[in-house]
Design goal:
two-stranded antiparallel ribbon; single chain; globular; Aminopeptidase; 8-stranded mixed sheet
Length: 195
């Protein structure tokens, strides 16, 4: 396995009015990353407003650079149109909500729709680590990972290039990128050099 991480399924327990534990069906996948404890959990409707805040915080600067202004009603419309908790995982760092990743596992590739972190969690390697987990899943399945990035988002595009993504095309507003595993070579090599 390229990224050697531990998967833990935890059923969150809350206490009901009678004091008995209630099972919450939100499954978590958790691991240690440096001095941080990261976890992914399936999004629920309760996560919607946090995800909206993350979306706005993560995109505001790049949208202003690319389009000249931030239009809050328009961005709310984009968020509502894309809101799909079934494809969304919440990212927690040391138990605190930090962001989200929206991705779909399709028969021939994994599509990363978006990965967003609140500003205080950016530039700490968390986004890279989460994406590497997706690459690990692609290696196990033998399929590529695809995504798109706004043309003005140089920082994200450089991150994807460091992780081995290649530019495959572009649309009016986005660069299209793809990562392929090294199947058929001597061995698969993870983006961080571990195999």
């Amino acid at each position: 396995m390229c990224f050697g991480w531990m998967m833990i399924d935890i059923k969150k327990k809350k206490k009901g009015p009678n004091g008995m534990a209630i099972r919450h069906e939100k499954s978590e996948r958790s691991w240690q990353f440096g001095n941080m404890f990261l976890s992914l959990s399936s999004a629920t409707q309760e996560d919607k407003e946090f995800c909206r805040r993350v979306h706005h915080a993560a995109y505001r600067d790049v949208v202003v650079r690319q389009f000249g202004a931030w239009d809050e009603p328009l961005q709310n419309m984009f968020f509502e149109k894309k809101w799909a908790p079934a494809d969304l995982d919440m990212i927690q760092v040391n138990g605190k909500s930090a962001g989200c990743i929206c991705r779909k596992v399709l028969p021939d590739h994994i599509w990363i729709e978006e990965i967003q972190l609140m500003p205080e969690f950016q530039e700490r390697g968390i986004g890279s680590e989460i994406i590497k987990r997706q690459l690990n899943g692609a290696i196990r399945r033998g399929i590529p990972v695809r995504l798109q990035v706004l043309k003005a988002n140089d920082r994200a595009r450089e991150l994807y290039k460091r992780l081995g993504f290649q530019l495959t095309g572009e649309s009016e507003h986005h660069f299209l990128m793809e990562w392929r595993c090294n199947r058929g070579k001597d061995r698969d090599v993870a983006p961080d050099g571990r195999s």
